[in-house]
Amino acid sequence: MTWLGAVPGWCWWLIALVLVAGGQQYRVVVAQGEAGTARIELSDYRLQVAERDRRAAAQARTEEQRRQAVADEEGESARKKLELAQGRADAAESAAGGLRGEIARLRAGHRATCDTISAQQRPAGTSAVVVLGGLLEEADRMAGSCAAALERSRIAGLACEAVIDGMKPTR
User: Residue 127 in 3-state DSSP?
Assistant: First the structure.
């Protein structure tokens, strides 16, 4: 009889069971090590993503502040230009008011002279000077209001262009 035969059968089963259990335990330990490594890698990945998000948010805030500063600067510039244009329009309106007063004075003088002459010579009619004076006065009013509106529109358009150009991202 050999030494293998001296060992009872149930011991062989026990040895096989211990070997299988040991192999399984080894697999569990290796899997736990791999899971720990995966957890560490996942944690590192989450930190990287959080850092990337933080940088992107900071960059977006910086860009937003830059764009707002450009818009504010251009808005202030446009406001000053509009105030200057309004001042010029007011000065022009004042000068035009004086001119209209002079035209009215001349029309009144012409009308008085013509009325006296026409009463003597022909039936009263509207003189060409009076009509042209009225047309000139109305045209002057309209030109002044159109010029002021166009100047405001031009300033607003230039301000919009400057804001849009300032909003383009700097690279």
Answer: coil
Measure the CA–CA gap between 28 and 30, rounded to whole angstroms: 5
pLDDT band, very low/low/confident/very high, at 124 (cuts 50, 70, 90): very low
Give the start-to-end residue ranges of the domains of the chain.
10-167
Q: What is the dihedral of CA 58, 60, 61, 66, to 10 degrees?
A: 130
Joined together, the tokens standing for residue 86 give 């309004």
**Residue with structure tokens 């060409």?**
128
| Euclidean distance between CA atoms 94 and 77, whole angstroms | 26
Report, in this order, helix, strand and coil percent for the chain, each rounded to 5.
90, 0, 10
Higher pLDDT among residues 48 and 107, named by residue: 48
Q: What is the pTM of this model?
A: 0.53
